[in-house]
TrEMBL record:
Gene3D superfamilies attached to this UniProt entry: Helix-hairpin-Helix base-excision DNA repair enzymes (C-terminal) (1.10.1670.10), Hypothetical protein, domain 2 (1.10.340.30), Nucleoside Triphosphate Pyrophosphohydrolase (3.90.79.10)
Family matches, as SUPFAM superfamilies: DNA-glycosylase, Nudix
GO biological process terms, semicolon-separated: base-excision repair; mismatch repair
Designated name of the protein: Adenine DNA glycosylase
Amino acid sequence: MLAGLPGLEVVKIRQLLLLWYKEKGRDLPWRHQKDPYCIWVSEIMLQQTQVKTVIPFYQRWLQRFPTIKDLALADLQEVLKAWEGLGYYARARNLHKAAQYLIQNYNGIFPDRLEEVLSLPGIGRTTAGGILSAAFNQPISILDGNVKRVLSRFIALSVPPSKALPQLWELSDSLIDLENPRDFNQGLMDLGATVCTRKNPKCDQCPWQGDCQAYNKGIQSQLPMSEKSTPIPHKKIGVAVIYNDQGQILIDRRPTDKMLGGLWEFPGGKLEPDETVEECIKREILEELGIIIEVNEHIITVDHAYTHFRVSLIVHACRYLGGEPKPIGCEEIRWVNLDQLEEFPFPKANIKIIEALKLIKDC
DNA sequence: AATACGTGGTC
DNA sequence: TGACCAAGTAT
């Protein structure tokens, strides 16, 4: 007995989902084999990221880093370059760090014990369950966005999922099919992704329609309850594309453990109140790099939305005048040609700047 | 417990 | 354009 359901009902519910999955489950690249490394890579990439976005990254990644050893031996810069555009770059840094740890301590073998998997950086409860069930068919439950939505509707949860995590985990634990946990977990996620969608759920195609409390109450489109959101600030950033007399451009590498850590960027900083963009850029470059520049024409303004704030990058062409550049507020600095920029990993907002520079050069 | 952490898609 | 969300984890 669980969640008010008799044991016989639970057996039926499991079978309904497994049957549905067999007929309607998605064919995804990482389901073709059971190498825990490949499953691991897919699970990390899929954190907060849609399947459609992940697939090309996943295939390129395994081509470049086919094994844990290949990943461990690679340079972090190359790892980040392979991750460029996927976002949440700590995932790539953690994947790299964990691969090196596995080479050092596990002879490069991915562990099959929950406690050990959970101890790896970047792997939490859901990712651990996803890996252990998919790679080893272990009955470890999951609670990702899809499962939260499916289960919230299934029990007509009257609060946002984040307010009922223990209850939802308990339900996911109780439902999982002990004979076929791999297909059960994958089926649960597929159900959320293709049938029990956030908007316009296709309840007429759902194997759990008869047992879904939200459906039976006619409130499925109102669930799950939305999380409360806080307003996000909007920052204006002055950005410098600094040229020297050889026509090279100055770029810097961001501190490894901060936002966009390890990625390269065009230097700059936040506009202070009552400061012009020109003043801001000149001040920031002196503070961060210790050099004097002349701020020239406006190149482009890039608007970009992150999760918890938005920015307008106001980019100006600048000329290097004097002083020895020093990495004061960053890890490293380099003078590079326009053509060399693509060798470095850049965040998306900076890639828009590079595109603009290429257009200017072509004129 | 609340916040930091990217990007692409939708309406 | 702005708000919201998608295979979450770390602190």
